[in-house]
Design brief:
The protein contains ten helices and 17 strands. The chain has about 375 residues and is α/β, with parallel strands linked by helices. The chain folds into two domains: about 200 residues, Quinone Oxidoreductase, Chain A, domain 1; about 130 residues, 3-Layer(aba) Sandwich (Rossmann fold), CATH 3.40.50. Strands 3, 4, 5, 8, 9, 16 and 17 form a seven-stranded mixed β-sheet that branches. Strands 12-11-10-13-14-15 form a six-stranded parallel β-sheet, sandwiched between helices. A hairpin with an 8-residue loop joins strand 1 and strand 2. It is globular. The protein starts with 5 loop residues before the first strand and ends with a strand. About 50% of the residues are buried.
Amino acid sequence: MTIPTKMNAIVLMGHGDLDALEYRSDWPVPQPSADQVLIKVGACGMNNTDVNTRSGWYSKAVTTATTGGAYEDVSENDPTWGGAPISFPRIQGADTVGTVVAVGANADPALIGKRVLTDNWLRDWDNPLNKNSTGYFGSECDGGYADYTVTDHRNIGVIESDLTDAELATFSCSYTTAEGMLSRAAVGADDVVLITGASGGVGSALIQLAHRRGAQVVAMSSESKHAQLAELKPAALLPRRVENLGEALQGAIGQSTVSVVADIVGGPVFGSLIDVLERGGRYTCSGAIAGPIVDLDLRTFYLNDLTFTGSTVVPPQVFKDVVNYIERGEVKPMLAATYPLKDFHAAQAAFIEKDHIGNFVVTP
């Protein structure tokens, strides 16, 4: 195929509101280096990392819930997930699905023509388990909100699936994040897992992946979303805020405690989540959309022998596992809506409203 020299892209020019994102039709098509492949993008999923990086919410100067808007005070030193600046302009978009159309000298030419998903964790491939040398696709390098993108040939997974590109673009970030949380918490068939933010991309992935491990699932979300979430067959559905969480659990599943809390919300509900963990229970977290600053009674933490795990960077095997789950039909896509790339601002505004279940996807 003939590869053009210019392409359409959504380009982030700096931290700020939605107007920091520009739709460009004259952006240079990237050229793969020796270790990279060039992907013609078929679809790219949206996620909170994009919004939080744009707005600078990761900065310790910001102490409030995520809004998707610009913040008055954002430190220049720590505005990203990794606590370091990024360079602009930047094409965001981690969850890329597409077709390999060219390869660098060190990549296998047989990859050309293959349909692939991107593994979003950029690694030092001489020491791939070193968390200190990781980056994120669409953050520390350009991502998939464009017609074409490049990534290391070791950061792709060839996929054999009847799912559409848009459906496949719902998986990579959300499902690897969810699988990483469950792995860090060592979730198994004997566990009861309480999931916050269950209607989002990570939350709905947590339901499916906890089920896959044989665990019993209690999902918390807005009641308006319960009917659709019921299709994922959690043992119980609870409102995102309840006056007495222990009593609500007792009424829903016959016990007032759980063995695991998988939290992506944080904020005011944090204390009630910790209070319903059984002795020896585990709390795992990969988000704080309701607010990063929480109250913790250390007596509850140590007297109940609790284990807390943060989960961000996942081992390389997690992405490979998720690709296998998709191919075997063990997880299903939760595609909320698809937008053309030119309507990106409307798509991200709708994503920020959180009225959907699952993931939003943009297509070139």
